[in-house]
Amino acid sequence: MNMVQPRIRLSVASMAITIACATTGVAKAQAHPAAPGGPAQVLVTARESLRPGDEAAHARLEAEYTAVLNANHGSEYYLGMGAISGSQQMIFLSGYSSLEEMADVHDYNETTLGDKLDKIDSAHSATLTGVDTDIWRLRPELSHPDTATLGKMRFMELTQIHVKLGHNPEFVEIMKQIKAGWLKTDPNFHYLLYRQILGNSGDDCYLVLIAVQSMAELDKHHALIAKYQQALGEEAYKHILEFQSANYDSTTSNLFVFTPDMSRLPAPWIKDDLDFWAPAPPAAPPAKKAAAAQK
Question: Selecting from 3.40.50.970, 3.30.70.100, 3.40.50.150, 3.40.50.720, what CATH number does the domain 140-254 have?
Fold first, then answer.
């Protein structure tokens, strides 16, 4: 996750995760695979609210951060996205197999790159009005993962759902019904659902991620809502609406676009579209011939 050091330190400290020996963390981080075979079990999100007028400086510093990781074999991988709807913000996603791996990656970068990353962070913080970091755990039974690599996607819809405390069991049953309804309606509709385990929320908070290759996929999904309601059945759909009205504190959906120059994905995820994720620099204009220069 593109979490400059203070952000990851706060996350680790809030969980009271400690590593007895820094070299142990380094060894573990080096052993972790760069590209997990399925959805990340633990997801870290960092929302950065940009200071007006500092967008260009922020983008430059993010590129410097990525360059330091690439040059020094950093263990951090992350997807950066810019908001299309909602407030002006960037969001960075990073996945891990466990909280232990998250701590190991932090310790590895801190041990090997701490000084270099801290220098960037000092300037980076000045381009922001705020940062909100949350940690989530996958609910696989409520998700429908896509087998396509994230590197083929271009947009992501993020929906954050706040459920009143004490109603989590009912919410889980509701989401199972919703999943069954969409599987009947469109088996090719894929999404991931995470539950917040650490963050600022005072209720039960969930995050739904829908990654797509194009806006046409979202058009198709929205066009099938009526068919999905029919697949649920009138009574089930009415029950879902009543539960949401009574037990949701709030729900917010926004659309984000992938930003390759602010992302660092594992090589296996981007190999099919290097022109998007790692475009070659523009060719330099041809030098004038010496004879022409003398004229």
Answer: 3.30.70.100
Q: Beta 204-212 vs 192-198: how paired, if at all?
A: antiparallel
**Which residue matches tokens 């429908």?**
144
Give the pLDDT confidence of 32-72 residue by residue, as tens digits: 555 556 899 999 999 999 999 998 999 999 988 888 888 88
Six-digit token string for 16: 């009271």
Query: Does domain 5-138 correspond to CATH entry 3.30.70.100?
Result: yes
pTM of the predicted protein model: 0.84
